[in-house]
Amino acid sequence: MRIIHLSDTHLRRSDAPHPHGVDATDSLRRMLAELRPVRDVDAVVVTGDLADDGAVEAYRAVRELVGDFARAVDAPVFYTTGNHDERSAFAEVLGSGHLAADGTDRAEAVGDGCAAVSTVGGRRFVTLDSLVPGKVYGRLGAAQLEWLREVLSVPAEHGTVLAFHHPPIHLGLSATQPVFGLRDPEELAAVIRGSDVRVLLTGHFHLQLCGFLASVPVWVTPGVVNRVDLTAAPGTERAVRGASASLVDLGGPTGPVFHTFHARDPRAHETVYERDEERTRAFVEREG
Ligand SMILES: [Fe+2]
């Protein structure tokens, strides 16, 4: 099974200004154009921050652009919420978030959030909702984890893919990742340990990262809107231009195997924004 994994498209209303001069719609178009030649795609996963401002119009644009790609490769799409998303606008446009290649809703949202489950070729896809309204960090919460425990109590034919926005892992090089990731990773680890979950697909950090939770591989796919550059001075944060996305191949004895694609952007690596040490500290204190 081959999954195209996108995240952090951050689309806005068409009349909204582009933050830091980056046109997010253009970034998504470039990324999808780059991915066109990829063959044998079984599923597309988009792990949150679909809209930058929660606008219904932005969700429609994501659905149209990603939906066109999914139709061309004849694969379903699985969307999750991120910290920038707005649940009611997400649900209005994307329903459960599990859309067939022809755009029809193939699942039902569970509980008050935007979690859902459906199966493709014996492989179970579970999208979780780690959005905490008004916060940059994420949390799955006891009720959602209890639901997940029940879902996983019956193994799927070919195992389970879990997708959500906030990574349960981080890298010591970053000043912000330890504060703004998933706040209940131990509770999630307790639920997936020994289950049929093969991989956790996440986003949010705008860079690629791989680690493990309860012996399950965790993949953080880079962002579509921009890339966070960890060569910035310690304690600071810098983002640069350049959309990226991943191919996750679950098949074979060595899977999952991860590959990162980069969109062709003549302005790639140009600085988008920089936060010095003082502003980064203030951001972490304010939002953390
Ligand atoms: Fe995010």
What does the model show?
The protein is an alpha/beta fold and 288 residues long. The chain is built from 7 helices and 15 strands. Strands 4-3-2-1-13-14 form a 6-stranded mixed β-sheet. A 6-stranded mixed β-sheet has the order 5-6-7-8-10-9. A 3-stranded antiparallel β-sheet has the order 11-12-15. The relative contact order is 0.16. It binds fe (ii) ion. Fe (ii) ion binds next to loops.
What is this structure's SSE topology?
Elements: E1 2-6, H1 24-35, E2 43-47, H2 56-73, E3 77-80, H3 87-94, E4 98-99, E5 116-120, E6 123-127, H4 142-152, E7 160-163, H5 177-180, H6 185-192, E8 197-202, E9 209-213, E10 216-220, E11 227-228, E12 237-240, E13 244-249, E14 257-262, E15 271-275, H7 277-287
Parallel strand pairs: 1-2, 2-3, 6-7, 7-8, 8-10
Antiparallel strand pairs: 1-13, 3-4, 5-6, 9-10, 11-12, 12-15, 13-14
Helix pairs in contact: 1-2, 2-3, 4-6
Residues 8, 49, 82-84, 165, 204 line the site of fe (ii) ion (FE2).
Note the main attributes of this structure.
288 residues, alpha/beta, six-stranded mixed beta sheet, binds fe (ii) ion
